[in-house]
Every structure is written in C-alpha cells, then in structure tokens.
Amino acid sequence: MGRGADSETTPGVGGTDAARPGAGPLAMAGAGEDGLAEMNASVPSPTGALAVDHSATDDLVPESAGIGESNSDLSASPDRSAIDGRATTITSATSAPHRSRRPARPTIALLAATAVLLLAVLVSSLGGAAGLPVLGTTEALLDKLPFVDIHTGLGPVQLSVLNEIRLPRVLLATLVGALLAQAGAAYQGVFRNPLSDSGTIGASAGAGMAATLVIVYGGGPEHTVAGIGAVPLAAFVGALGGVLASYVLGTLVGRGGTASLILAGVAVSSFVGAVQTFVMQRSTADVRQVYSWLFGSFAASDWSLVRLALPYAVISVLIVSVHARHLDVLALGDDEAATLGLHPVRTRLIVLAAASLATATAVAVSGIIGFVGLVVPHVVRRVAGPGHRLLLPMSLLVGGAFLVLADLLARTVLAPAELPIGVVTSFVGAPFFLVILRATRERDR
Amino acid sequence: MSAVKAAGVRVTLDRKSILRGVDLAVASGSWHAVLGPNGAGKSTLLKAIVGILPYQGEIQVGGEAVAKLAAKARARLIAYVPQQPQLPADMTVAEYVLLGRTPHLGYLGVESRTDRAVADGALERLDLAGFAGRRLGAMSGGERQRVVLARALAQQAGVLLLDEPTTALDLGHQQQVLDLVDELRSTEGLTVISTLHDLSLAAQYADDLTLLVDGAVVAHGTAREVLTEQRIAEHYGARVRVFDDGAGRPVIHLVRDRRPG
C-alpha cells in the first residue's frame, strides 16, 4: 500500500506546533518522571510510526527532550492542548494502567446506601407521638430478622405501636420511595431525558384523574372493591391507563421515538388534568379530600397495603434491574443501540411498562408524591456515575431512605397534625438538591 | 471472510425514493469509499447495510444475507460509526468502549473476563489506555473519534462502516484517523466501507470507490477511473482540476472562477 509513508510526508502541521513553545510540556514540568519515562518508552520507532501513536505521548514529552527533533514529525493539532491541563492525571493513570475507575467503589457505595437506609428506618421507627426507647426498638427490629432472636425490653403497648403503626408505615414509605426513585431513573434512561419522571408519560396525571373520579363519584375512600380500597385501585388503573394512552398515541403520531412519546405524554397529562379540574370544580365538597390524596400521605398505612404493594414492587424492580445494561446501551441513541444488537423500541416498551407498574403501585398506596423520582436519580448519578447497574440499585436504596425521612418530618413537624408528604419532599428536597448540585459541580465541566 | 455485497438495494423513506437499486461489491479486507454530492444517499446506504433502515434488495456479508440475521448476529458482523456518535458526557471511556461488547453478551449483559480483555485491548490499540477513567465529555474531537473507533473495534466485527469519519476534525486529525483506520484494516483484516466528503482523501485511502448520485450508482472502480474532471463537474457542479500525486492516485483541486466581475 505504501501508506505508512503518508504520515511522514506531512511535517507542516507538526512543524508549526513545535515552533509554538509547547504549551503541553510546560504544564507537565512538575509531573512524575516515572510516568514520563514509561510514556516515552512506548513511542514506536519513527519510521513505522502512525500519527496517532503519538497522540497521547507528544504532550508528555518533557521540554528538555528537544521538541524540535522529537515532535517535528508528528501531526499535532490545537486540541491537544486541551489535554495539557490534565496531564498529571494522565500520567498517574498510566502508571496504573486502564483498570476501569475505582473497582471497589460500587460495593462501597451500595453498602453505604444500605447503611443509610437502615439508619433511616430505625430513626423513623423511633420518632412519633408515642415515644419509643432507642435500644428496645433497635432490639425489636433486629428480632424481626431471620435467625435473630433477641428479647426486647419493650412493653406490649410499645410493641404494638411499633408493629402495627410504625413499621407498616415506615416500610411502605421505604417501598414507595424506592419504587419512585428507581422508576424515575428508568424513565430518564428510557427517554434519555434528565427531566423525565412518572409525570412525563401520563402516569401521575392518569392516577390523579382516576382517583378524583372515584372520590367524587365513586363513594370515596371507604368504598372497596374485592377487599381493596377503591381509590388505590383507581389510581393503579389510572396510572397504567395514562401511560398506555401516551404510548399508543406517541407511537401513532411518531415512530416510537422518545420525543414523540414525551410529547404524547404531555398531551395526555394536560387533557386528563383538564378533566380532573373540571370534576373538582363541579364538586367543591370533595376538593379537600382530593387534595389530601393528590399530595400524598402514608397516614393510612397498614400491613394490608404493604402486602398489596409488595408483589408488584418485586416484579417491577426485577424487570427494571435486569435491563440495567440495556439502558446503558440506549444512552447511545436508538440507531447506535440497534447497531449493537439491541432492539431499542422493544427495550423501551419493556422498561416503560415495568417502571409504570412501579409508579402505579406507589401511587396506589400513597397518592402522588412528586420530586423523589426526579431528584433521587440525579443525586445518585452525581456520586455513582451514569452506569445503570449501579444507578438503579442505588436509587432504590437512596429513594427509600429519602422518603422514610421525609415521612418522619411529615408526621412530626406539626404533630399531631400531618403535613402532606409531597409538600415535605419538595420543601426539603429542592434545597437539598441544589446543595448536592453545588457540591458536585466539578462533574459538569 | 467479510466481503460485502449489495444487489439492487432500494430504500424509500416517507414515500421518497432515497436509494434506487444500488449495487456494491467490496472485497474482504479492502477499503471502499462511497462518494457523492449532498443528498445522494451515502449515509442511507450505510444505514441499510448495518440494518437500521428497512430496504428492498439483497445485502450479504461473507455470503450471508444480513436481513435474515437476528440483530445480535448482525452486530457481530458489522460495526458502524455514525457521522455524529452519541457520547454520554458522564460515561467514562472504559465504560463506553465496553458497550461495544454488547452483541457478544447474553440478555442479562454480564461481561466476562474475555469481554473486558477485548475492550482493554481496543483501548490499547487506539492509544487510549491512559484515558480509560476519563469522562467522554472531557475528550477533544480527535480523541472522541478514536474512542468511537475503539468501541467499534471492541465489537470484533469483520466489517467497519464509517459515516464521514473526518467531519469536524482538523487537517492533522483527519489524517490521523484515516491512517489509523487503514492500519486497523490491514492488521485486523477489517473490511472498511466509508462515506467521505473529501474526494482527495477518498482517493488517497480507498482501494475502490463508488460514486452515488441521486440514489443510484453512476461510477465505480479505482480512484483514477472514478474521479475524472468531467464526472466531478457533471455530478458535483464543481470546477476542478485533477492531478496525479505521483503515486498513481488522483488529487482534486477546486478552481476559482476567473471571469472578471
């Protein structure tokens, strides 16, 4: 082919670069000599050299090594200098070559998040109108673990407060927080849009309208269908219905791409919201009840709600988790994902369905709780990076912890009255989110 | 063996005919350039070959009709680098390149030690080993192109499709990337099909060229056969002079309109 010679016959660009007293080498002056020696040793012999072989090395050649000779045959370019500011990082990375970053970190992050969640559960079990002792409660909680048998110092009344009032509520809040956060991460991955959450594709709006209809026309919260509260059932069906309508319409008007799905979700949400407003306008007597549901609450928590939610929660979490790597691939866009052997539309449908099941389950047992699904994944991403295999389980843990603590605030701040939990998540969550963004802002560069 | 053959490939998008019966024959291990003025259907042809656009006609890789293959099997045969690859800014170089192993993984997507070794090898091959932990958002234009090539290389497909690999790169990096592709082609035995805007570059690097105009092939053969002054004038509407670079490959110069005005 005789093309090996091509790279040598174009000294022009490299020449000018050499004439400019190397911005790169100067920045390197203080960096480790070992790294430099290593880099230089890897420079291939000049004759067979491909231009690219030098790309990492020419910035790292110390000035004293004689730029004129060693660089003149390199085709260099302006954007090399972009590397220079980070030259030190490169050298240190070279001496510990190409292990993917921080191998031990996922485990540490998961363990830390688990610890935070357990602590949140404990603290939240303690707080409330009937004071429970720290030690006894801890023992009672540990006693619940399999193979652990501890005699607790709690009296029968305290035990029943813990078992029948606190625990179901705390566990339900954990479950809902975990579901909403993971669903949010899944929505953001599927839509490749950081502003997506369960509201994006009509789930919240659908649930809100259905619950409103039941509260106003369907006999209210006391009404039950087959032993299940009519409002939770309506919210569940409404959430799935909203997503289904958005998906079908989005696929009809577009080609199943993300933009058309999001736009269809906006249209459906807006339409359904209008219906809900109209219904509420017509029956002002029920507005209070509707509002208390719309902003979410765990006041009605009991074990039956936990049992009701658990199977759907497990199924949706499993399905979403299995597709973690698929979401990573989807981040490259539909076309590139397809060239890597993925079916983008099918993957999106499966993950959307599972995330919507999670959302519907959460909404059914707690009402509409905003902010968790949007914010928790972003906070986690700041710490854990964008890879979904860490992001999804971390969102579960952090989301659970976040909502448990939010619920603790909701029921203690104005005790004996309760704040709507949605108010707490936003009121506490928004400033907290800004603090996290600020603290981790280097990642934005 | 990864010879690529296309016969009578037609693509219609929104009732508009984009490709009207394109034939292509690319020998295994060679570099084939697809040329043509804007809107000729060059990118569409690559997308049809890699299977992300529906087409009529027949496309074979190594004698196998790709339309009948499952997406994963096809992805093990053909790697594709789009004109503007999506590089998630917070993903690291190592994570990104490892995504190239996707067609080799099961549904749960657990990478084996081999997969990691192949990805590491691709990083090393493209001189990116020291960049493994770097965020994609912190990479420059030339580095990004190498990262994308590393991902395609990790895919271990015999055929590499490149859509305008040199757009948005300066002169030095254009040459760097093309040299690199050429080197990979010869050492890894890749079959390369690329669209290229720059006719002189195409002439320098490609073994064979296909000139596509309005969705149909108007000429194919070596650079010397395809790139004539008259043909370029006719299809690009450009005034050019074609010189010989001394090694038998044509060099195309644009000529300024000298009429006084």
Automatic annotation (TrEMBL), chain B:
Gene3D superfamilies: P-loop containing nucleotide triphosphate hydrolases (3.40.50.300). One of its GO terms (molecular function) is ATP binding. InterPro entries: AAA+_ATPase (IPR003593), ABC_transporter-like_ATP-bd (IPR003439), ABC_transporter-like_CS (IPR017871), P-loop_NTPase (IPR027417). It holds the Pfam family ABC_tran. Keywords: ATP-binding, Nucleotide-binding, Translocase, Transport. It comes from the Bacteria. Residues 4-239 form the ABC transporter domain. The keyword ATP-binding applies. The keyword Translocase applies. Transmembrane segments: none annotated. This is ABC transporter ATP-binding protein.
